[in-house]
Amino acid sequence: MKLSFPIFASSCLYGICSIHANPSTLRAELLGLVGNNPSGHLDTKIINEFSSKLKDFAATPGVDKSDILFAIGSSVFGVDIAPPKTANSDEEEETPVIVDFDYMKQFMKDVFLSYGCTEDQAEISSDVLIEADKRGIDSHGLGRLKPIYCDRIDKGILWANKPIEIIKETETTALVDGNLGLGLYIGPYCMRLAIEKAKKYGVGFVAVQRSTHYGIAGYYTSMAADAGCVGLSGTNARPSIAATFGVEPMLGTNPLCFGIPSDDGFPFVIDCATSVNQRGKIEKYAREGVDTPRGAVIDNEGIERTDTEGILRDMVLGKCALTPLGGAGDKMGGYKGYGWATTVELLCTAFQSGPFGDEICGIDRSTGEPKPMPLGHFFLAINIESLCSLETFKKNTGNLLRALRQSRKSPKGPGRIWTAGELENDARISRTAQGGMKVPKVLQQNMIDLRDQHPDLKEKYGKFPFE
Fold it and tell me: Band of the pLDDT at 63, cuts 50, 70, 90?
């Protein structure tokens, strides 16, 4: 990220005045800025001051490159400052390429159109993906366009343009069949249906059968929150999680997601897998060429694995599994994550008489050939006005969340407390300020491959911003 002129100028001015400042003093001042200004990432003056001090801190000889202050600068204040490399450094950094959100969304929309999606399907599907990138959830945005959607369409296990059918419906409920179409389009359709029912009758619940990967669950609960509802959504996925005291992948990473309106300016949205880690994050580790943290994966021998490429290969073959929230065994409460993952699996299969386990693994274990993954989802919307005024509800929510953020901080922590949805809002502000999203080389290549595969894309996108 390039610093704006005001930040650059004030940084230089501060550097002249404090070039000999004590590094421990600078660090204390930086932590003080974070801790004493919970909304400082929205205040230009605080951002500028933080940037100036962080630049001086980075220039301090022998400063720790892994100091959390640099991560705070990047993820919270949108300031990418790091210690300078030494003269004999052999490290090669990838030059970041920032691409405008609108450009990237249009490209993804055009890709879906090239696969035969309708205008509406392509518009909505690309919006779900770009929203993940705006929120900083890189594992579920552009990074999934080719491997999860396009490649599966090419393999004939997902279809770009399939009708959505309502199998059974009442005033407050519906059972929907997605016919193995794009989950990115099926999901918004079903949450809109749940919201419509909630606005009429107070609550709406929609269960879905034979869908496919639907992107970030937080997109759907945000839809509900924006409509003045409490939203709940979940989906099952190909088997990845082992049961507590087991090693066989039996359950999906099965996110359980809530969205709750607040007067903060952004909703409370908790969107996370019921595993310690999820496959998308491990795929991100692979793109970055780093090891998977120990404790997130266990293999058939009960060994905790860290070799990212080997993990991705063996997960497909059923030779290793993710651990549930809390980890393997019961010492850290792994049975809790196991229980929540099972709950989501039940709500995605019991109403729908849907498959689970190997039936949705995406590969025929005997032949190694790809096969469809008919997933289940559920969507719940509760109309807040049916119980109290929306204004009162949002104020009550905001009061609690602000109390949490303003509570006493750990002296060993980053100096700030976040509530769910806040980091994603910070990412949106930061990435919008920097002009869009960073596109690493592996995703640049994905875009090039898709363009070269489709003549209409090649004609429209003769040269990408990074070429």
Answer: low
Question: Dihedral angle at the C-alpha atoms of 122, 125, 127, 133, nearest 10 degrees?
Answer: -130
Alpha helices in 59-180 (DSSP H): 68-75, 101-114, 119-134, 142-144, 151-155
Under a CB-based contact definition with an 8 Å cutoff, are residues 277 and 328 in contact?
no
Whole-prediction pTM: 0.79
Surface-to-core class of residue 325, CB atoms within 10 Å of its CB (0-12 exposed, 13-18 middle, 19+ buried)? buried
Q: Once rounded to an integer, what is the mean pLDDT over residues 253-268? A: 96
Which amino acid does the sequence have at 186? I
What is the rounded distance in angstroms from the CA atom of residue 223 to the CA atom of residue 230?
10
What are the angstrom distances between the C-alpha of 281 and each of 138, 337, 351, 360? 9, 18, 30, 20
Say if residue 291's pLDDT is above 70. yes
**Per-residue pLDDT tens digits for 191-226:** 999 999 999 999 999 999 999 999 999 999 999 999
- State the pLDDT at residue 13: 32
pLDDT digits (tens, 9 = 90+) for 87-138: 444 444 566 799 999 999 999 999 999 999 999 999 999 999 999 999 999 9
β-strands 203-211, 173-177 pairing? parallel
Residue with tokens 């970030």: 216
8 Å CB contact between 143 and 287? yes
Separation CA 198–CA 194 (nearest Å): 6
CA 257, 258, 259, 264 dihedral sign is negative
- By C-alpha distance, which of 23, 8, 31 is closest to 59? 23
Q: How many CB atoms lie within 10 A of CB 434?
A: 18
**In 273-331, which ranges are E strands?**
297-299, 320-322
The answer to whether the beta carbons of residues 304 and 231 sit under 8 Å apart is no
**Which tokens in the block code for residue 29?**
């001042």
Query: 173 forms bridges with which residues in the sheet?
Result: 205
Please give the C-alpha separations between residue 160 and each of 69, 212, 301, 409, 411, in angstroms, as whole numbers: 44, 11, 40, 49, 52
Counts for the chain of helices (H) and strands (E), in that order: 17, 13
Residue 379 CA to residue 227 CA, distance in Å, equals: 14
